[in-house]
């Protein structure tokens, strides 16, 4: 099979650079996992089997893994839009947390007389709360020059304890022993019971397709991307990059809030203390692994979700210690974010014989 074909300027690699880098990263990650487990696990063969096969070994494990991947897809799409618009959103954790809290309040308050419409209203409340937090960071950047990386992070640090207080205090279910609100009586339909997989996974896939069409197939998405990637070039072409900051952060926050709604109304069935569980930070990693390409979020979230589920399965089934599991996740993610360069071929001028 020919690996290279001649172009007007010379030769180029038939395998695209991003695909080559992903293959190298995946192969290196698998080798690294095997080495770490072989050196640290008490029973390496059982641990390797649990790590790679555990997340897919039963409908319950499969459904839970896919559900976590769906949450990652929704949140990481928001991070991708923020990156594409020239912003860096570090407020995903609070946007998810407060969005889920707002959705839970609406569901517990309106289920009795709104019926299924309460789900739509709860989703809108989550979108509004998360979008408002993102828009605030974007407004501070545009109006006062405050860097959105700092402002979004500080909003997270300031508002997360407030949400903790509300969930563990005034809104806590007095009839339960958990630091959580009352169970939500009306949940998103489950796809693969008894797992937590719900229709939110389908909505996440549809949102990715909408994001891809907007960024890659519309003039507004082109202007949005140019404004974020090359602000000076955008100004030269008559595009004001500053006009994209608030929409970018608002969209990122809204998708974060929607992730919180999917989590409480689909995954957990209630809003409990710290339910976001680092989803905001994980979504940044998934977006970086995907190089901010919407369609690449599918394999990136799949790898990340399988990595976390495999680590959990190895912890439970094979006695892999927590520190080793955390080190595996960190090392593999570091490897996945490295941009490997595809091998280059010396270019020829013209008239060369094709090979």
Architecture overview:
With 355 residues, this protein is an all-alpha fold. The protein has a single domain (14-337), classed as ABC transporter involved in vitamin B12 uptake, BtuC (Orthogonal Bundle), CATH 1.10.3470. Helices cover 68% and strands 2% of the residues. The protein has 13 helices and 2 strands. The protein has helices at residues 17-40, 44-53, 59-84, 92-114, 117-144, 148-168, 200-217, 219-229, 231-236, 245-268, 279-289, 297-318, 322-337; strands at 4-6, 11-13. It has a two-stranded antiparallel sheet. A hairpin with a 4-residue loop joins strand 1 (4-6) and strand 2. Helix 3 packs across helix 12, helix 4 packs across helix 6 (148-168) and helix 11 (279-289) crosses helix 12 (297-318). The longest helix is centred in the middle third of the chain and has 28 residues, at 117-144. It is globular and about 60 Å long. It starts with a strand and ends in an 18-residue tail after the last helix.
């Amino acid at each position: 099979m020919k690996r290279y074909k001649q172009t007007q300027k010379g030769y180029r690699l038939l395998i695209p650079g991003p695909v080559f880098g992903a293959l190298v990263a995946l192969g290196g990650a698998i080798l690294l996992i095997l080495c770490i487990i072989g050196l640290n696990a008490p029973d390496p063969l059982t641990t390797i089997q649990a790590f790679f096969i555990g997340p897919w070994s039963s409908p319950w494990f499969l459904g839970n893994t896919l559900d976590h991947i769906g949450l990652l897809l929704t949140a990481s799409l928001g991070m991708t839009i923020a990156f594409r618009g020239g912003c860096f959103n570090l407020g995903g954790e609070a946007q998810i947390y407060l969005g889920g809290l707002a959705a839970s309040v609406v569901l517990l308050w309106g289920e009795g007389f709104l019926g299924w419409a309460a789900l739509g209203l709860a989703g809108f409340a989550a979108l509004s709360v998360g979008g408002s937090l993102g828009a605030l960071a974007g407004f501070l950047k545009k109006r006062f020059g405050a860097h959105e990386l700092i402002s979004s992070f500080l909003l997270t640090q300031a508002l997360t304890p407030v949400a903790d207080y509300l969930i563990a205090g005034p809104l806590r279910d007095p009839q339960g022993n958990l630091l959580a609100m009352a169970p939500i009586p009306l949940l998103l339909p489950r796809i693969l019971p008894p797992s937590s997989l719900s229709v939110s996974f389908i909505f996440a896939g549809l949102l990715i397709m909408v994001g891809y069409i907007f960024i890659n197939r519309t003039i507004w998405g082109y202007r949005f991307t140019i404004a974020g990637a090359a602000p000076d070039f955008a100004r030269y072409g008559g595009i004001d990059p500053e006009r994209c900051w608030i929409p970018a952060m608002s969209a990122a926050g809204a998708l974060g809030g929607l992730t919180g709604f999917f989590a409480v109304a689909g995954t957990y069935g209630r809003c409990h203390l710290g339910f976001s569980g680092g989803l905001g930070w994980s979504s940044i990693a998934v977006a970086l692994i995907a190089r901010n390409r919407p369609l690449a979020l599918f394999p990136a979230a799949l790898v990340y979700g399988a990595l976390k589920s495999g680590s959990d399965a190895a912890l439970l089934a094979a006695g892999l210690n927590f520190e080793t599991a955390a080190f595996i996740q960190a090392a593999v993610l570091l490897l996945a974010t490295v941009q490997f360069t595809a091998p280059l071929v010396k270019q020829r001028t013209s008239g060369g014989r094709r090979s």
